[in-house]
Every structure is written in structure tokens, then in C-alpha cells.
Amino acid sequence: MPESVLVFAEHQGGKLSRPTWEAMAAGQNLAQQLGGTVSAVLLGHQIAALASELAALELEEVVCVDSPLLADYTPDGYAQALREVVQQKKPRLVVFSHTYLVRDFAPKLATSLQQALVSDCLGYRSEGGRLVFVRQVFQGKFVADVEFAGPPPHFVSFQAAAFREDSVRRGAAPAKITSLPTTLSADKVRTKPGERFRGAKQAVDLTQSEIIVAVGRGIKAPENIELAKKLAEALGAEIGASRPICDSGWLPMDRQVGSSGQTVAPKLYVALGISGAIQHMVGMKGSRTVVAINKDKEAPIFEAATYGIVGDLFEIVPALTEEIKKLNASI
Fold it and tell me: What is the pLDDT of residue 1?
């Protein structure tokens, strides 16, 4: 049985996307667990520079499929091109990050090979040499353990922030870059690319934010969100929120962090008046540093906090904002 792992490298606008690095970290972790090798696969047109960037990682090889028909993403083109790579390389696992693009074509790819896709996983564990993947069900109320049945290849996607992008290992020497041809022809591509999807008009992509100031029900009233916005401005941060805030219409839905919103992994996450319901915690668990301010010392958010402040946010936040402004002025 092959013990290799193949990681799909997603790119947009000539740059590797942030989820790609998370997927690479997942692939390296899985390959180490299996005692096997990990490689990356890159689809597109004129992708030599991206391939060289990937080759700096600790990989067996970077497999490139370069074709004008892959210059723009289409589910038909990507599914066929990647299917040909999988059939030739015969990996045990094909790993994706659970992005909109992957959600669109990966089920088609897996089905074309009569395989299943275990999607949106939180992580995995090894039990007696078996890989058990963990994913949420019923909107995050429960988690399920899932194992693959039957021979590989097996397809799995991981939720954003399931693995940290800064945990990717770099290689001592550049990885081999291999170009593979594709039999993809224009008549096999049935769709024409349109404008790239956005979840909402003028939506913010919190997954790309390095600093987030998030508000919960402890903010009490919509007019009080201005306190959080002033702190966010001083920190150079984006504003996020728990579900009740967005459900109440105090902030737009694209600001929601959690199992039914965005999953984020900023360098700094400041939680203001957020109790820490499991649905919210799932969305921010990948944060590197968490600062929680809540007057309830028993709030679950403190279990995830790097630093916790028990107190009235209406007293603490203005003082904190002023101190940060002073610090910014002195730099």
C-alpha cells in the first residue's frame, strides 16, 4: 500500500494562498505519521515561479501540470488534471484545505475515482496504525470520527486553521520539480470562468487578518461597538463578532467568527465580552495569541486565552486603546 501524501496547492492572482500553507503543514504531519513521503501538486499556467516557491519546503517533489486550459479555474479542468496526477502517482492520501474552490471540484474528483471525500476535518489521530479523522456535524454541536474504508487513494480536506501555516517545515535542499502532461482538451471544459465568488457584497475575509478584535453579547448595545472599533483602529485590526451580534444585525454576517461563520487564525485575537460557546471557539481556535476581556471569571473563553482580564470591558477597553495609541505615537 502506498504511504505517500499528495497535497493540493491552491493559488490566486499569481500567489500561493494562505490555506495552501496550512494544507502543506497537514500533509507533512500526516506523512510523518505514516512514515512516508509528501509531495505537492500545482495546477495552472505559467506556474514555474510558484513551483520554485513550493520546492523550498520539505517535500519529495513538486508536481506541476501546466496548460493554458488551467489558466483559470474550472471544476472540469481541475478535476481531470488532478485525477491524472493521482492515477500516475498513486498516493495513499490526497490532502486539501477546505476552501470554496476545493468544495467545488474535490467531490467531483473523488467520485470520478469511485472514492469518498472526508471534508472539513478539524484534525486526525492515529489508533493502532489507523487514521481517524475528526469532523463536525450538526453545525458544530457534535464531532464525528471517520475512517476510510477500502483501498486508496483517500481524499481529505481540513478546516481553515486546523494546522498552522507557520508549522510548515522547509527543506535542506530544493525539492525536485516534475512536469506532467495532461490529456485535458477544450471540449472537456464545459464551464466558462466568471467573476470570483464573494460570500457577501464588500465582504471582509477575516481568514487573512493578522489581528482581530471580536465582540460578543457583553458589548450590550450596538452603539457600544464603537469602543471595539477604536481599539481595532489602534491595533490595525479587523472587527469580528460572535453569532448573536450578527444575528441581531449589529454587525454584518461576514464579520461572524465561528462554526457557522468564518474560521480564523490571526496572530492576535482580542475577545471582548465573548463567553466562549463551543461554536465560537471552533472558529478562533487557531489564533496564536488570545486576549480575553470578560467580567465573568468562569467564562469558557478564558480556557482558550493566552491572557485573560476579568473586569468591565467598558472601563478596560478605552484605557487599553489610549495606551496603544501612546505606544504607536512613540514609535
Answer: 44
CB of 268 within 8 A of CB of 128? no
Residue 200 domain flag: no
Q: What is the layout of strands, in order, in the sheet containing 176-179?
A: 142-146, 130-137, 117-127, 154-158, 93-97, 5-9, 38-44, 61-66, 176-179
The verdict on 112 and 211 lying in the same domain is: no
Report yes or no: 85 and 180 within 8 Å, Cβ to Cβ.
Answer: yes
For residues 238 and 144, membership in a common domain is answered with no
pLDDT band at 192 (very low <50, low <70, confident <90, very high): confident
* Beta bridge mates, 289: 268
pTM of the model: 0.78
Domain span at 217: 206-330
Q: Are residues 59 and 121 in the same domain?
A: yes
> Does one domain contain both 16 and 153?
yes
- Reduced to 3 states, what is the DSSP secondary structure of residue 170? strand
- The DSSP secondary-structure symbol of 57 reads B
Peptide bond preceding 193: is omega within 30 degrees of 0, i.e. cis? Answer: no
**Chain centroid to CA 194: how far?**
24
| Helix, strand, coil fractions of the chain, as percent rounded to 5 | 35, 25, 35
For 209, how many CA atoms within 13 A lie in the half-sphere containing its CB?
Answer: 25
